[in-house]
Amino acid sequence: MELPTSDAPVSDIPLSVRARHTHDQPISYFMQQAVENPGLISLAAGLVDAESLPADEVRQAFDEILSRPRTAQAALQYGTTQGFHELREKVLAHAAALDSRAPADLSLTPGNVVITTGSQQLLYLLGEVLFDPGDIVITEAPSYFVYHGILASLGVRTMQVPMDDAGMNTNALEELLIHLEKTGELERVKLIYTVDYFQNPSGLTLSLPRRRHMMELARRFSKKHHLFILEDAAYRELRYDGADLPSIKSLDEGNRHVLLAMTFSKPLSPGLKIGYGLLPTELMAPLLRFKGSHDFGSCNLAQHLVHRLLDNGAYDRHVARLCDVYRAKRDALLETLAEEFPADTPGLRWTRPEGGLYVWLTMPVETGPDSAFLKAALREGVLYVPGQFCYVRGAGHYPKNEARLCYGVAPIEQLKEAVRRLGRAAVEVGAVPACGLAR
Amino acid sequence: MELPTSDAPVSDIPLSVRARHTHDQPISYFMQQAVENPGLISLAAGLVDAESLPADEVRQAFDEILSRPRTAQAALQYGTTQGFHELREKVLAHAAALDSRAPADLSLTPGNVVITTGSQQLLYLLGEVLFDPGDIVITEAPSYFVYHGILASLGVRTMQVPMDDAGMNTNALEELLIHLEKTGELERVKLIYTVDYFQNPSGLTLSLPRRRHMMELARRFSKKHHLFILEDAAYRELRYDGADLPSIKSLDEGNRHVLLAMTFSKPLSPGLKIGYGLLPTELMAPLLRFKGSHDFGSCNLAQHLVHRLLDNGAYDRHVARLCDVYRAKRDALLETLAEEFPADTPGLRWTRPEGGLYVWLTMPVETGPDSAFLKAALREGVLYVPGQFCYVRGAGHYPKNEARLCYGVAPIEQLKEAVRRLGRAAVEVGAVPACGLAR
What we know:
homodimer; Aspartate Aminotransferase, domain 1; Aspartate Aminotransferase, domain 2; alpha/beta
C-alpha cells in the first residue's frame, strides 16, 4: 500500500463506523518492513512459483478466443453477475470429478455456482450474507490470518479449535459447540471455517474420520438455524504424495450445510483472480444481490480464459506439471531442514505436508516480530511469517514459538540457502546446538 | 441470475440483517422478462457496441506481454491491493491530461489512485468507507439506478435534485442543502453523486458554471465534516460533438472534496472490468483496507493489459474510432426519432446528447412496466428502460412518462427499426397522431 503524505487534518473526514473500526492487520506493517530489505530470501510471502506460471498456455488460449469474432465479443462484452455460464458448468463438473461424483449426486447445478474475484471475494460476500456483528465463527488454531481480518471488519467473533496431525480436533470442536449451547450462544454460531487440504498456515490436512465428524456436528448443531461449514479447498489440487481425500462438500447430502470455496489462483495463476463457490441453493439469491452491488460480475475476459484452459486440457496438464515443481521444492525445504536442524532438539519440530505451499515450524524459542530469533533471521537474510499472526488476538493464550515457511516463491537453491540461514539464526540465539547434523 | 429450484425450507437459513433487507431491484425482474422475448430489439440493456470491441488490439497486447518471461510473470503473479503501480501512473497522467493538467497541479500522485473491478466496485467501496445507515446522498433526478441499489443496501437515504439541459440544477441543490442545515440533517449528508458527462440515463451534461457552483457548495457546506462530490465520469471520453468540459475534480484545489470515478468499461471493453478512482489522500487508507478484505486487488492480468494498451497508443486510437461508431449510432437514433415522432406533439421531447450512450425520451403517455405504451412496444418488438426506475422510490412524486433509450448495443439498422417500432407503439396507444412525419 503506497500512500501519499499529507499535512491535511483528518478529523473532519466523515468515515463510516465500520471504516473507523477497521484497522491494518499487524502483519501488514511487518511485511512492509521486510520488502525493504534487498537480498532477503522470503519464506513469508504466500505467492506462487514464478517460473512455472502458464504464460504460453494463456497466450495460446487468448489467441484462440480473440481471433474469432463470436468468442472475442463474448469475452470483451459485459458478463453476468453470477459468472459465465459455460465456466460455471465446467468448474462444477471439475469439482465434482475431484470427488469422482457427478454434480447431480451432490444436488448441485450450475445455478449453485458463483464465479468470484478470487476465493477471497467469496469469503467476503459470504460474510456479508451471513454475519451480523457479534456472530461467531469457529476455525482452526492456527488458521488463515487474512480471513481473520475479514471477520474482524464485519464485527464477527472468531473462536479457534486446536489442530493436530489430522487437522482440526473435531472432539474439541464438539466440546466447544456443547459449551456454546449451554451458555446460550449456539445461535450466534453461523459457520465453521476450515482450510482442510494442506492448510495455510500449518500444511496439515483434515482426516477422513474428522471430515465425517465435522459434517455430523454441523447437522447435529443445526438447531434454531443452519450451521454451515465453509470448506476452503484452495490447495486441494496441489497434492504431491498420498491419496486424495473426499471433500466435506461430497459428504453434504442434499447440499445443505457446506459452502465450498475453490480458486484458480494457486493451481493456475493468481494474476487471473478467478475463484468460485459451490453453495446451498438458499444462499445464492442473497449472495448474488451483494455480488451485483459489488461489481455485477468478475472480470469476464479472465473467466473466458479459464473456461478455455479447462476445456482444452491445458489446465489439467498444467496442474500435473505444477505438482512436480512444488514436490521438488517441498522436498528441498524438508531435506535442508533435516540437515540444518538437529532432529532430537527438544521443542523443535515441523510438519511434512503432502501438498500445498506451507511447512509449519515449531521452535524451542520465540519467533515473534520482536524476538531474538526473527532479528537473527533478518540479519542472516531470511524472513518467515511469525506463527502468532495465525491466532486470533484476545482469545486467550496462543503459542509464540511457531513459524510459517512458504516454499511457493523461492527457487530450489534459494530455498536451501534460506533454510541454512534460518539454521544459522537458530544457532545464534541458542535454539539449536552449534554442532548441528550438517556441521 | 439463474437459480436452481429447491423444496428446502428457507426459514432456518441464518442470513444477516443486511442480507434480509437487500432486495432485487424491481428492474431485474422486468429485464429478465424481456430477455425471454426473442426478436426483440433492446434499447434497454446498457451494454456496448459489440462489433467495435478491440479484439485485435487485446490479442496483440497479450502476445507482447506473455511472450516475455518478465512481463508474463508480472501479469500472472499476484498484484497489489491498490493496483499495478505503472497502471496507476498511466491512468493518473491520462485523467489529468483530459483536463490539460499535470497530476501535481491537481495535488495528485499515484498514491491517490486505486484500480477497481469496474467503477462499480469503487462506488461500493466508497459506500463502505463513508456511509452509516441513515446517512444522506444527494444526486440528480433521474439518476443511475444501479447506484441507488448500492445505497439502499447500505441503508443510505438518497435525495434527488431536478435536472435540466445543463445537468443537475445546482440552485435547487443549494436550496436543499440550506433546508437540510435548518432541519439539522446537514451532518448526515456525506456525498453529492453526479454522472456529469452524458449522464446515464438522461444523456445530459453538467455545464461549466454549474460545475463551479457545485464545487463551491461542497466547500461551503463542509461544516462539521467534509462534504464530498463523487464525480462519476464513466462516459467522459465518449464525446461526439462539442468542446470537452473540465472535470469537477480539476476544480478541486488541493484534492479535498472530489472523488473521481473512471472506467475502461465504456471506452475500451466491459469484459476487462477495470475502473479506477482518484481520491483525496485521507480516504486512501480506509478504502484500501476494505479493498484488501474484498479481494486484495483486482484482476492483475487485465491491469497489465490496460497498461499496455495505454502505453502503446492503442487505447487512444480505439477511443477515436469508437467515437465515430457511436456518433453514427446516435445520429441514426435521433434522425429516426425525428422521422417517427412529430416534433410538435404536446408533451413529447427527447434529449440530444453530445456523447455517451443514452437518449432520454419524454412521452405524453405513461411508460411504466404496466403501461399500455410499454405493452404495445413489446408487441411491436422493442424494449426501453421505463424512466421511473431512475427515480428513488418513496421520495415523493416522480414522472412516469419517460424512457431511457440506449444506442450502445444494436447496430444502426436495428436502431432505426427499433425507433420505427416505438413509433408504431406510440400511434397504437394514441400518444402521437397516426399521420406522423414519416407516414
